[in-house]
Hints:
Chain A is an alpha/beta fold. Helix content of chain A is 40%, strand content 14%. In chain B, a hairpin with a 2-residue loop joins strand 1 (22-27) and strand 2.
Amino acid sequence: MHNQSSALQQGPCRLESLDDLNKFREQLERNIDPDHPEIVVCHGTGCLASGGEAVSNAIQATLDASGIKAKVIPGIKTTGCQGFCSRGPLVLIRPQGIFYQRVKPKDVGEIIEKTIVQGEIINRLLYKDPQTGEKIIHEEEIPFYKYQDRKVLHNIGKIDPTNLYDSIMAGGYQALAKALTTMTPEQVVQEVELSGLRGRGGAGFPAGRKWRSALLAIEKKGRPVYVVVNGDEGDPGAFMDRTIMEGDPHAVLEGLILGAYALGATEGFLYVRAEYPLAIKHLGIAMEQARAHGLLGKNILNSGFSFDVRINRGAGAFVCGESTALFTSIEGKPGNPKPKYVRSVEEGLWGRPTVLNNVETWANIPLIIDKGGDWYKKIGVSHSTGTKVFSLVGKVNNVGLVEVPMGLPLSDIVEKIGGGVPGGAPFKAVQTGGPSGGCIPYSLKDTAVDFDSLTEAGSMMGSGAMIVMDDTDCVVDLARYFLRFLEEESCGKCMPCRFGLSRMREILDGFSEGRGTQADIDDLISLSKAIQDGALCALGSSAPNPVLTTIRYFKEEYLAHLEDQNCPAGVCKALITFQIDPEACNGCTSCARKCPVGCISGGKKEPHTISADECIKCGICKESCKFDAVRII
Amino acid sequence: MRYLQGILQIRCCPDHIREIAVIEFKINDKEVKAREGWTILETAKEYGIDIPTLCHHPAVAPTGSCRLCMVELREGDWSKLVASCIYPVKKGITIYTETPKVHNVRRWILEMLLASCPASEEIRELAQKHGVISTRFSVHDPNQKCLICGLCQRVCEEVVGLSAIAVLDRGVHKKVGAPFLRPTDICVGCGSCVTICPTDAMQEIFDTVRGKPELPLSQLA
Ligand SMILES: Cc1cc2nc3c(=O)[nH]c(=O)nc-3n(C[C@H](O)[C@H](O)[C@H](O)COP(=O)(O)O)c2cc1C
Ligand code: FES
């Protein structure tokens, strides 16, 4: 950061044209020595949780302390989420591009001493490929990164999200300047249409077509028209939008300004859930910086076009991500969905034409305008162009955020990038699309991950959460979990959602307790259909998806619950018992000491036994046994 | 204003429609004519086609919350269910009011209603009319009559011009009562909510809205 200070010293200057922006960027670049050493510390939420801040503080403290023998003092930069959260805290040494993982504050001294001063690599901190056992030095050679195609995320992990100059040097606002100086609003819309970009918020509606409909509505009703960012991201296990807003807020802002220019909007809204304080903070800083430099607000880049934007904090209801509920929430009313027989492009915020797009959708716009719709549509597959960001979680080695071209086989994402299931067994299923998505079994592992193929498999793209399951995950339990989530999140306005979801969950509760019947399965299917057909908004109508797909692909597991009173995955507590294998148990007493209800007996060095009557099936004994003697039957 | 509109719309017979923009479409394979801005339900009523409703009343804006009035909209092989009380008529659409899909939704909703308003005679009769006499849902409150259709709140706001009644909370906890559940003196005791309530539930809720007046309305009646 320190080497940009000379540019900063001139104070914020208003940029007046594309030329100005280019000159300013060149000036910033001149002040930067690309070979100057820089220590990059990931400050994404994942790395912060595993101690990233302590690491960056330790680096700062070591650098501040006198006595560094390095010829040049390295810069230090903190960035948004680099994606590889399960290996955090991550530290990258530039310009060599050395990738250190699981760095602790106590490693910092050594990093400075050895790597910075002497140019040596610290083997212990390198990533080890679990397949080959090889240590990998550079980020781009790690399989997790190698198979990705980071387009939307290309700046994240490279720039300091709170620094506009970093963003400008990485090409930020280039597309905006290009559009304002060389393109008409109509040309911007055409470029987006040509790109084939489909909304990343779930439904996959073509963004260009949405913008075109808004223009038609404007013809009829006149302006104002509003542009809105949907940053409500409420799916369990999803953090794509958060990462983009935190790590590259200027990209979202630039996309939104481009949309506003295309549609002639003067006012926009960023609807961000209140649980994302860092995203709100970074967007706020980005807006302030952009305003100070003439990139937002009155007369942007001296083009005569004015546009400003406001942040709205969503109060944390999942359903507020639904477009009509989001609008009523911005208007200051309870966030309840309204029937959508008039489209929101015609009648959105305050009854005005409104274009609502997801965070990731907006972040794609600058790329499209910068490089052209033609370039964009060559990425991915014909009906699903571009890339998609997924959060890969669950029983997978490389938990994190990945971006891949659309159409990649599911197994490539889970196995090549995700490194497969810990222990090497094949995955059992992947839940895509969040709570309203579906469960895709291993037998369909070659399913192309694009909008249409996922829908065909009974699931959906949704916002991009991917939850990987192995054979210790029970599908009945999974369906129950998501239904309980949606039951809690239902606004309760329409009957099918308010009552239907509870009833479905009750039936599944029955299965998990061994009370299910064949009639229950029929009821589940028929009630699912009624909810799909009858619910007022997509929260309800998509809620049965996890149940329907698990019944479709894992019927025998449901039947095991009802016919054999057995949970094959060993999850449903009422159907399992914990037992100790006397052959395997050597009487180490570890389990007996840890059991919270004290129901394990047995002398030292003698096989232990669990009293089934007292056992609460918490599983602590199984976790604590080093000899794999505790069995679930 | 809405109230008048509602009444006018209902009074209009098909013969009078000719003067205004007419929209032609089909319900159950029968050609029907409607005025621009009408809903499917309004048109069906004109032609004496019975569609069950609960949360709809011509005096207030429809919200489409009970989903009892769902009908099937077909286009070739493609079809979807829409709430007839809010779906605006469009030229050339084909609507079916009695199909397996419609019946499935209707049956389930009636079962939900039987469980959520077990004390309501009206609901029991309605369900019976459609062949539903028992429910697979569990009954939580045997004395409940309110189905939370929100008609009372809407009539108070839209027709009386007050906000003495609120639909509170979310999801399974949703309920009708005074704003913030504090009895309110905003209420002028006009009784519109009691009249519009499809299940007589408002009789009992009314006093909780108004606080405890010296002579409760339920005794007045
Ligand atoms: C219950 C529910 C929750 C939703 N949550 C979100 C969300 O958190 N973020 C989002 O972008 N879209 C969400 N959507 C989808 C939006 O309604 C809308 O389709 C989307 O924001 C449009 O943007 P896009 O075309 O760019 O995808 C949700 C939809 C439903 C039904
Ligand atoms: S009458 Fe149409 S949804 Fe209730």
